[in-house]
Amino acid sequence: MINETIVKLQNGKVIVYPTDTVWGIGCDATNEEAVQEIYKIKNREESKSLIVLVSSLSMLKKYVTVPEVAINLLKKATRPTTIIYQNPTGIAKNIINKEDNTLAIRIAQDDFCTELIENFGKPIVSTSANVSGNLTPKSFSQIEQSILDAVDYVVNLHQSKVSEKSSTILKIEGEKVIVIRE
User: In 3D, which of 97, 88, 86, 93 has the Cα closest to residue 47?
Assistant: First the structure.
């Protein structure tokens, strides 16, 4: 399953896959064309940036400067936590928030996601598998057919899993931590 998914990502394809929170639409987060396709599938404005998943703290540090306060938050987190970082590098430009040059990144906590990203060697996009404005699906069965028809590949794993919550989203400004979503 992982090798087949990696081939799709390497070829710029868009996938639907289980994450450590809800089912997500993903692609290579360094591929602008693939990211553009996600915006199109979700009918989402490009001004609304997307979340990116990495496999580890060391991978995270390749793309952003990680302040000490973020490291402490991640060590104490009891559930999936997305942090908005300043000045990302090496990421598709159309995934970065243009207003303040930030990017929301989460270290995956799911075994499949972690192994997928680690073996792929690059971050992947993780945005909920729904059309923008519609309800976030809590299980595979709740994903709209239009989404499933529009992506290139659906990971056949954990399709009976139900996830009640998205990740916590925090933004760090200096030493100040702002809760965007609990």
Answer: 97
